[in-house]
Please model this.
Amino acid sequence: MELALKDISKTFCIKDGPVKALENINLDVEKGEMVCLLGPSGCGKTTVLNIIAGLEKPDSGGYAAVKDSRISLPGPDRVLIFQQDALLPWMNVINNVEFGLKNKKFPRDKIRPLAEEFLRMVNLFRFRDSYIHTLSGGMKQRVALARALVLNPTVLLMDEPFSSLDAQTRELLQDLLQKIWMITGKTVVFVTHNIREAVFLGDRVLVFTAAPGRIKKEFRIDLPRPRSINDLRLAGITNSIRQEIKDEIDLAMRSETDNE
Amino acid sequence: MFYAFILVLWELLFRASIWPDYLFPSPAGVFSALVKGIYDKTFIIGLLVSLKRILLGYSVSLVLGVVLGLLLGSFKVLDDMAGPLLLGIRTLPSICWLPIGLLWFGLSEKAILFVVIMGAAFSIALATDDGIKNIPPIYLKVASTMGAKGPRRYLTVILPAALPSIVTGMKLGWAFAWRSLMAGEMLFVSLGLGHLLMMGRELNDMKQVLAVMILIVAVGITVDRAVLGKIEQQIRKRWGIISLET
Ligand SMILES: Nc1ncnc2c1ncn2[C@@H]1O[C@H](COP(=O)(O)OP(=O)(O)OP(=O)(O)O)[C@@H](O)[C@H]1O
Ligand SMILES: [Mg+2]
Model:
């Protein structure tokens, strides 16, 4: 198994006392699979990714493993792509893409060509010398994608990477991600709020309950690839999932607002 | 506009002859003293001597300050122990270091440098410390997931991420350093601008005193605005920090 989560729970201790964010998460992801995690705000999706990335430790009893070795620390075999503004603004585009390779002590003469290859893949080769503050939000996320992929991670973790983009850019990037995923065959865990996005991208969609997060339901999306965002079957599946998780969203809305 | 008004007011007060000429010179008189000083090279030499000193003292402060700040920002124990002490020391006017400097180094170049370094290094250290503590957590997560460890983590992520704050500290440090240098130079035959100021006093030459003062202010502002201010602006722009000041 490429990635396995076994009985993962996570309790945060804050000054008001313990907060249970995750409860008994079990998940197996196969090589080359794209799994989408869907759930209301605050249900612990980011926490799951942080645990896989090694940035956060699960409560004792559970564990996460990549290729059968238990995860304890962050490492370039599990790269996390954030929602926004995670590029290093003191480096230009190409240096951002080269950053992880340089840390890894990759053979010097191979770094530049490899970084350029991945910039071409996200159609940003022309902007290799640009500084980050001159890029649009969509361009930044494409650089982040190239920066992650160039490390050839075993698992690519994406935390709502397109949620701060406008609808049009978002669709373009969803298409690009699908294309790149089909070429590279990466194992991906993709977190989103957006049901349609999850259905478009995922081989499987896992729906979380409101906090504490548990996996409530699993949907296998058997549409052929490449998928089109305008596919009617996609809209159909999206609607049926929306219906099923409506209760969960209502519940989350109520717990996040003050009026009882 | 405002400055023109001041000049006019100055000229009017001068014309009114309330105070004698040698205590209250005219703007034109001060200006000619400035030109004369530049022509006979005394001001130029004074300027160069002071600039050389400040360059040396400020560079040492910068290195010391950043290293100290890095240590404080990286080890919480150190920060807890030394942080309050440093805050206390920073409120001390830097000229208060002079007696120690004089006792340790005598009436010499070294004593002046000591005062300059003490004046600037602590503000730079505190700003560096502060900058490190306030690094957006996302940069640290990126450093971890991208495998930046050890010295590389400091050089490629932590220091650059703290740089906006460090530069702000450098501006503060500069102001302290320049002031303490002038104070130090006034104490003995140091040949710098501070010394020229004292010479003006001894010769009862108000024109020279004012001319040198203008020069001191000019250097102070130029470095603050034109050099450090520009760097600060550039960095904030590129780092994507929206500046609140206009
Ligand atoms: N470092 C932390 N310290 C304390 N509590 C935390 C911490 N990180 C997350 N939490 C809590 O854990 C719960 C889950 O947070 P998480 O960020 O994983 O949710 P999420 O599903 O990613 O939400 P969103 O969709 O809004 O990003 C929340 O209740 C949050 O307040
Ligand atoms: Mg989240």
Notes: The interface with chain A takes residues 138-139, 141-142, 144-149, 152, 156-157, 160-161, 163, 237-240 of chain B (CB under 8 Å). The mean pLDDT of chain B is 90. The radius of gyration of chain B is 22 Å. The CA atoms of residues 62 and 121 of chain B lie 6 Å apart.
